[in-house]
TrEMBL record:
Zn(2+) binds at H29, E32, H123. One of its GO terms (cellular component) is cytosol. SUPFAM superfamilies: Zn-dependent exopeptidases. The gene is ACY3. Transmembrane segments: none annotated. This is N-acyl-aromatic-L-amino acid amidohydrolase. CDD domains: M14_ASPA. The keyword Lipid metabolism does not apply. It catalyses: an N-acyl-aromatic L-alpha-amino acid + H2O = an aromatic L-alpha-amino acid + a carboxylate; an N-acetyl-L-cysteine-S-conjugate + H2O = an S-substituted L-cysteine + acetate. Residues 229-309 form the AstE/AspA barrel-sandwich hybrid domain. Its EC number is 3.5.1.114.
């Protein structure tokens, strides 16, 4: 522990430009209601500033929100890769691809100096995940410092960070449009409804994010150190299916259900077949399941994802002054 603390103290302070333009987005999935109602409330309050930063609020997929569905033609939150954003638009182009390109114009362009400084996208999950921040890099020091503040300040739910280790060109979610970006994922909450406790956790995370932005822009210095509960995506686990009918033949085992981020050891029960047999985890590595039994993943046959846990050391950080 002392060696790790010494390493953190030895890291050179990092100075980064102020975050002058911030976007809070909800309704990327039209039936994830906490973000929809939170963005609508911010718009009702006409909240347009976070200290010195300009605040933009967006209902990302208004058509899906109107019909309370995850999407209308295809998943909007898989439409932000470089390939899709640069694809030609025709009469046959799905609505969500068109909308992704509109959002890229509004919040990006992705990877461009003119992009929004910070994009925060709001999501719900039916899985028992508490509060998770999801992003594509643990070396984006702005995001990691925001995560540490959220983790320190919020006690009403466990707070974790999920790393999707992909290059920017392949980053598929809306938050990748910003110079810095992350998704907030809160659950469990059924799709199409809003729960007060889940809504309040999300609101507190957004409030802490905006508070951090204000402090950073005003010149506050943030100390370096260790950040725990960081999970790197390893692989997806798929439901057993009948080879002839393609129907699911098992449910997630009770020892895994609702135990997101707990340890899954080789030989542990993983699925309970409808015929009664137990399917055990045959991996060689102890990993952590998350997005366990997520409703939206049934169409993809995904039962849950597996992740590897790690600790990240972050440097001291403050705003760069001209």
């Amino acid at each position: 522990m002392r060696k790790k603390m010494k390493k953190a103290l030895e890291m050179e302070p990092v100075c980064l430009p102020a975050l002058s333009r911030v976007a809070i987005c909800g309704g990327t999935h039209g039936n994830e209601m906490s973000g929809v109602y939170l963005v609508r409330e911010l718009q009702r309050q006409k909240l347009e500033k976070a200290g010195s930063a300009t605040l933009t609020t967006v209902i990302s997929n208004p058509r899906a929100v109107q019909v309370c569905k995850r999407y209308t033609d295809m998943d909007l939150n898989r439409c932000f890769t470089d390939a899709i954003l640069s694809s030609p638009v025709t009469d046959a182009t799905p609505y969500e691809v068109r909308r992704a390109q509109e959002l890229n114009t509004l919040l990006g362009p992705k990877g461009n100096v003119g992009a929004m400084d910070l994009v925060c996208d709001l999501h719900n999950t039916t899985a028992n995940m508490g509060l998770s921040l999801i992003s594509y890099s643990v070396q984006d020091w702005v995001i990691m410092h925001i995560y540490r503040q959220v983790q320190r300040k919020i006690t009403s739910a466990p707070v974790r960070f999920i790393l999707l280790d992909l290059p920017l060109a392949d980053a598929y979610s809306q938050d990748s449009l910003g110079k810095h970006g992350f998704s907030i994922e809160v659950g469990p909450q059924p799709h199409g409804v809003v729960r007060a406790d889940i809504f309040n956790i999300m609101k507190e995370a957004v409030d802490q994010t905006l508070d951090w932005v204000q402090c950073f822009n005003s010149g506050s210095a943030f100390e370096g150190g260790e950040v725990d509960d960081v999970y790197t995506f390893v692989k997806s686990v798929y439901y057993p299916r009948d080879p002839e009918t393609n129907q699911i033949t098992a449910a997630i085992h009770p020892q895994v259900q609702d135990h997101d981020f707990c340890l899954l050891h080789p030989g542990d029960p993983m699925f309970l077949m409808f015929s009664g047999e137990i399917v055990k985890y045959e991996g060689e590595e102890v990993l952590h399941p998350f997005f366990v039994n997520e409703c939206a993943y049934y169409e993809k046959s995904i039962a849950f994802h597996l992740a590897r846990k790690m600790t990240v050391t972050i440097p001291p950080l403050q705003v760069k002054r001209d």
